[in-house]
Amino acid sequence: SQKIEQNSEALNIQEGKTATLTCNYTNYSPAYLQWYRQDPGRGPVFLLLIRENEKEKRKERLKVTFDTTLKQSLFHITASQPADSATYLCALDTGGNNRLAFGKGNQVVVIP
Amino acid sequence: ETGVTQSPTHLIKTRGQQVTLRCSSQSGHNTVSWYQQALGQGPQFIFQYYREEENGRGNFPPRFSGLQFPNYSSELNVNALELDDSALYLCASSPPTGAKNIQYFGAGTRLSVL
Lengths: 112, 114
Prior knowledge:
The complex is a heterodimer of chains A (about 110) and B (about 110). Chain A has strands spanning about 5, 10-15, 20-25, 30-40, 45-50, 55-60, 60-65, 70-75, 85-95, 100, 105-110. Chain A is mainly β. In chain A, a hairpin with a 2-residue loop joins strand 6 (about 55-60) and strand 7. With about 110 residues, chain B is mainly beta. Helix content of chain B is about 0%, strand content about 50%. In chain B, strands 2, 4, 5, 6, 9, 10 and 11 form a 7-stranded mixed sheet that branches. The chains are: A mainly beta (about 110), B mainly beta (about 110).
């Protein structure tokens, strides 16, 4: 069956350190993968998109990698700040037309 | 803010009732997708509308139906509500060109079924 797995345990990290989140998937062949941020009571907000032929993408303090052989994406927040505290969702393209399949999300708590 | 607005923000219904949720897409966005997000879970794709036609459906029963209007706004209707329908319902719009793979989400409608 198809699965998208993100760590269910919250990641507690000291301010200034790098937070690294993992997204593993099975039985999908996504043309692209996206990461979203979700704050409590709000809708997800798009952060980054990486295509299957790209290894790495960066945006300011964020970095995403995509390994289609391992079926895994890593999401990094460098120099983390308390304002980065949120739930981060991995989302896969399921074959076109923007139909996304989401993981459960991984909560990040940045401790001042 | 994404420019996608949903109404109402919160709603309480009883089992068996019907509900209509509304979404105004961001200006210029002609594709609207609806997602259901249960507590502690990621959003699950319900269906998508493009130019007023349903353009793909997830694993949801027929009592979940929708509409898209000429101005690209959309409605989600759920009949015969069940307790498990309690969730955050998210609407997302996408532009026709450029960043067409990106979904711009509204804040959602929190539905509680008692």
